[in-house]
Amino acid sequence: MADYTIKVRRFQPESGEGPYWEEFNVDLDPSLSVLDGLLQAKDRDDGSLAVRCSCRAAICGSCGMKINGQSGLGCKTQIGEAQEQANKMKAATGATAATADSPIGVQAPEQSAGVNAAESGATATAGGEPIVIEPMGNMPVIKDLITDMESTHWTKIRRVTPWLLPHGEPPEREYIVEPESMIDITQSMACIQCGACVSSCLSMEADPDFIGPAALAKAYRFVGDPRDAETHERLHDLADDPHGIYDCTHCFSCIDACPKGVAPMDQIMRLRRKAGEEGIEDPNAGHAHEVAFVKIIEKKGTLDEAMLVQESYAPGIKGKLKPSKRGLRETIKSLPTILRPLRNRKVKLRQAIPGTHHKLPGDAMDDVKAIYAHAEEHNEEFNLYIKGEEGELAEEDVEKGIERSTAPAGQEADK
Amino acid sequence: MPSHDVLVIGAGLAGQRAALAAAEEGVSVGIISKVHPVRSHSNAAQGGINAALNPGDSWESHAFDTIKGSDYLGDQDAVEIMTREAPEEILHLEHLGVTFHRNEEGKLGTRAFGGASAARTYYVADITGQAIMHVLYEQLMKYSEQIARYEEWFCSSLAIDENGECCGVVTRNVADGQVELFQAKSVILCTGGNGMVWKPSTNALICTGDGIAMAYRAGAKLMDMEMIQYHPTTLAGKGFLITEGARGEGAHLLNAKGERFMEKYAPNKMELASRDVVSRAEQTEINEGRGFPDGTVALDITVVPKKRVHEALREIVLVGRDFAGVDITREPIHIKPGNHYTMGGVKTDVDGRTDIPGLYSAGETACVSVHGGNRLGANSLLDTLIFGKRSGRDAAARAKRIDYSRASKQVLEDEENLVADLIAREKGSGRRISEIKLELGQTMDAKVAVFRDEAGITEALETVRRLKEEAKTAYIDDHGSVFNQDLIAAIELGYMLDNAECTCVAALERKESRGAQYRTDFPERNDTDWLKHIDLERTDDGPEISYSEVTITQWEPQERTY
Question: Are residues A306 and A322 in the same domain?
């Protein structure tokens, strides 16, 4: 048993007041969860503290919240670990997670209604720093830790036509499918719709209309399902939508936040790859843009930004402009974007001319080639449900210094 | 007043299946759930779902295993229906999109499970319940025009018309506290079990026996309420479930001396004997001093190939790591029997009909009975789906036959008065709701668990009745309307106390040992006197006991060994 202080961002909609911070002292085994701490505070001190919860075992997806600024499940985060994290953050930044970048910045804890904290002096805790608990992000708050998932999360889920669309009558027995295909989409199926990925999504912060990690992972569950007959239509729909698969910025936040190893970003990348394979030309040239990235770096070792537009819309011979109609149009459209950094002297004129970007020296290029060769060789995706082996693959990759793009569970195991 | 031909209360597997089945019949359907449907506790069913679908397997074999597992208290006509309809239901789910595990030929693959004479458990890794429930919810979204969803609405009582027929339900919108009377021609209770009556329990916090209590209060009979399953493998202290699939994949049970003790208790089936048998064996080892100091025995999954563990028991790897700090692929994990499942419940026929016309029930809330004294692993999902479907269809047929009858507004007023009374109680007027819950849970786990006797059950019953009195003056902190979870917890406590009282009364009444009911003062099964169901009906002085026959078709009771 140990004492902890949890600092909860509260909001009581019927009080007429804005949100405020309140501290509670709780007393529990470090191996118990942050949710257990909240429930103890609710049971002992204040029954009006609102938090959705049910299973306590990371299977129902009710208790999505931010703990020390990180989105996740209250029931899956051990309170002892949360305490260590809070202390580390304090040591690193000199501020608690809440005061460091408080989205509301209302009351400092000293001024809050923290009755319990006041009584005990708030210092006699296991590790000292309060564990900061907030409602999920990217969703309106209804009361305390309860957010409006319907208007955000569920609306986006319904956006992706979330049911199987087979053609014709079902077979008399089961559909015969590759065993791996079922294991593959079971990774998306493992999603418990907790919203932690949505809460952490940086793209959605910039573009609230972004379909988002959870809904796109759900979409992959159908796109990857051999029984679904609308794969092409689904991919077209998600590629054409300006808030669709090309709106993701690869930030990995959703992978970190997901409590179930669904790795939503990986599912989004699979959707992109499949869209590319299906030859779907999207309005953002998202797929071509990705291909251009890979190609330019393969040739030059680093990114020649001046070539990106050209390569994305009119892939041609190295350095030579071979304009297509669309390529020209897009180049003209992107002129303001090119001119701004020139004007601000962030980019020199020389750097803005396609083809003049320098190449890395020979030995450095050899390293780049080695990375490409490794990627080629390991063209198989890392999917826990297929590989079934945590750790080993991850360790091997780490040794070789190769960054894994798709190893959520492996990353968790490394902790 | 919102009205629907068929109103389903609860949106786990039974409720969602019932709603979809009723909608297929072309009637208007509403489904009410106190949590968002995908939060329902069917999620937690990890291991799989049974069906005799393999060539060489037969429904008779599945039925016999189920009946033997039930210690011959299951009604054999109901078991026949469930096992006969199982294969079709699995295929239906597969066609809807459930990502069932495939064998190398790409066909549905199976795993072994406890108490079964063939490998007939179909599964999705160890998230079978979750996978099926999310797929059914996909269908609810697809048919949103036919099925109105009331997500996060809490039901507090049933409306009964002057003819004694169920005609609606009083429900509270959790989001804003608005209380309404919903009208319906048929009401189906699918609110799950009552695990929260025990502490610890594998059940979710929402499993507070709502439907069982609402039906009981409305005058419906309950049956087999003494039959409460303790699952053999739950995490010590926290009550989390380790799927039977682990033993199905070959894991061993060891005592503190490292002995595979099931050799003594079930030499043939070993770890895969029925759950009541395994739980008793574990508890005996622990009671006789061969357990670990923390009151547990060990489950050794390291004997299962690592690759297979990651592929088929992934959830358990996570549970071990996150909740016990144990890597189950490298070391045994400490477990003990823990409260898990309500075999008893609202007495229904094979179409989900209760004693009250217009009132149906399915899933863990109901007692058809297919599980009798002990449920086999991977039969619960099947029960929810088969009887969910059947009650949905029958409820729709009834709705087509009759007109809406007018519900008395009285029931709505009663509800409003109850809420007003709760809110008006001042802090310190009595005990906290949470204190009463804790005392209830600990008492039941100590006295009405794996081993029971008259003195213990009597003590528990007295405690429950005292707590019922104390609940009348217990106070809540939250006086608001929006997400008043405090208020809902107070109403749920009332449900839990009614459930507990019924379990105690029935456990005291059954003076024999059968299935999950093991009386140390009556250690033998006694078919002469007790091959019958105990039915309970509410009176002002507590549950009134009556009996009903067990339906036996072709399997005469015999001695039960594994």
Answer: yes
Cis peptide before B434 (omega within 30 of 0): no
- Residues A279, A292 within the same domain: no
What pLDDT, on a 0 to 100 scale, did the predictor assign at position B3?
95
Q: Among A107, A128, A143, which residue terminates a domain?
A: A143
Buried b vs exposed e over A264-299: b needs ≥16 C-beta within 10 Å? bbbbbbbbbebbbeeebebebbbbbbbebeeebbeb
Q: Kindly state whether residues A204 and A272 are assigned to the same domain.
A: yes
> If DSSP codes are grouped into helix, strand and coil, which group holds residue B230?
strand
Nearest to B43 among A13, A60, A164 (CB): A60
Query: Over chain B, what is the mean pLDDT?
Result: 95
Q: Does A143 touch chain B (CB under 8 A)?
A: yes
Contacts of B97 in chain A (CB under 8 A): 163-164, 222, 225, 227-228
Across B392-416, b (16+ Cβ under 10 Å) vs e yields bbbbbebbeeeebbebeeebbeebe
| pLDDT score for A64 | 98
Same domain, A248 and A328: no
B216-237 b/e (C-beta count within 10 Å ≥ 16 → b): bebbbbbbbbbbbbbbbbbbbb
Do residues A255 and A319 share a domain? Answer: no
Residue in chain B nearest A386 by alpha carbon: B311
Domain membership of residue A387 (yes or no) is no
Cβ atoms of residues B112 and B250 within 8 Å: no
Residue A228 belongs to domain with CATH number:
1.10.1060.10
Q: A303 and A251 in one domain?
A: no
Task: Choose the catalytic residue: B111, B149, B172, B275.
Answer: B275
Contact B109 A179 (CB under 8 A): yes
Whole-number pLDDT of residue A376: 80
Q: What span, in angstroms and rounded, lies between the C-alpha atoms of A33 and B319? A: 13
* pLDDT the model gives residue A349: 78
Nearest to A146 among B43, B96, B483 (CB): B483
Residue at A91 is within a domain: yes
Task: Give the ipTM.
Answer: 0.95
- Residue B317 phi, psi (nearest 5): -60, -45
Closest CA of chain A from B130, distance in Å: 8
Q: What integer pLDDT is reported at residue A97 of this predicted model?
A: 61
Active site residue B275: yes
CB within 8 Å: A389 and B139? no
A47 touching B (Cβ < 8 Å): yes
Residue A34: inside a domain: yes
Residue A384 lies in a domain: no
A16 interfacial to chain B (CB closer than 8 Å): no
Rounded Cα distance, A193 and A54, in Å: 14
Q: Average pLDDT per run of 10 along chain A, which is 415 residues long? A: 95 96 96 96 97 95 98 96 94 66 42 38 60 98 98 97 96 94 91 98 97 98 97 96 93 96 94 90 79 84 80 61 68 79 81 76 88 78 43 38 35 33
Query: What is the pLDDT at residue B50?
Result: 96
Chain A nearest-CA distance from B391, in A, is: 24
Residue A131 and residue A37 share a domain: yes
A contact residues 277-306, partner B, Cβ 8 Å cutoff = none
Cβ neighbours of A192 in B, within 8 Å: 38, 43, 130
Cβ-contact B124, A186 below 8 angstroms: yes
Minimum CA–CA partner of A392 in chain B: B307
Task: Quote the number of domains for chain A.
Answer: 3
Nearest-Cα distance to chain B for A342, in Å, is 51
CA-based nearest distance A49→chain B, Å: 8
Residues A60 and A97 in one domain: yes
Out of B36, B205, B480, the one facing A48 most closely (by C-beta) is B480
Among candidate residues A87, A115, A143, the one where a domain is terminated: A143
Q: Which of residues 363-402 of A touch B (CB under 8 A)?
A: 384-385, 387-390
- Over chain B (562 residues), the average pLDDT of each successive run of 10 is 96 98 98 98 92 95 97 98 98 97 94 87 92 98 98 97 96 96 97 97 97 98 98 88 90 97 95 94 96 96 91 84 88 96 98 98 97 95 98 98 90 92 91 97 97 98 98 96 97 98 98 97 97 98 97 95 88
Question: What domain range is A256 assigned to?
Answer: 148-283+402-406
